Amino acid sequence: MTSLDGLSHTDHNQPYSDDYLQAILKSVKTIAMVGASPDKTKFSYGVLRVLHETGYDMIPVNPRPGLTEIRGIKVYPDLASIDRPVDMVEVFRRAEDLPEIARQAVAINARVLWGQIGVTHPEAAKIAEAAGMKVVMDRCPKIELFRPFWKPKLHLEI
To answer: What angle do CA 149, 146, 47 make, to 5 degrees?
Structure first.
């Protein structure tokens, strides 16, 4: 596993370095996905599937009554209910929900708070970083995981 020590990113309105993102994705094993959906047409389902198939220990989090599993993986109603350590909390929820989710991520001692594309909130970043967590916002780990292999070649003529 890669250590996150010494890596930081404090202005979440600026692009993240490849090293920062890759170090996070190499260092985490267990990812709790808040807002995971059992609907195969939803983006969160596809991200959960790819990350799980890539080898991450995925923990879907969704409070929907009667929802007990997604892709054969046990679903938890909230972060506090998870029965094992969580490295990263990935969020597929509205941006205004992010500060409360950050507080919950701190409470379970997660090391990373990751807001999906479109999910950003400065207060959430402050909450997580004050607790020593790394933060990524407005990015998709599935995309970042494979980015080194498909960098566009914009210099080529069409």
So the answer is: 160
pLDDT in tens, 74-97: 999 999 999 999 999 999 999 999
CB atoms within 10 A of CB 154: 5
What is the pLDDT at residue 146?
83
- Rounded CA gap, 77 and 61, in Å? 6
Are 31 and 86 in contact, with CB atoms under 8 Å apart?
yes
pLDDT, greater one: 156 or 32:
32
Place of tokens 């600026």: 14
Tell whether the model's pLDDT for residue 156 goes beyond 90.
no
d(CA 131, CA 45): 29
Domain borders along the chain are 18-93
For 18-93, CATH gives 3.40.50.720
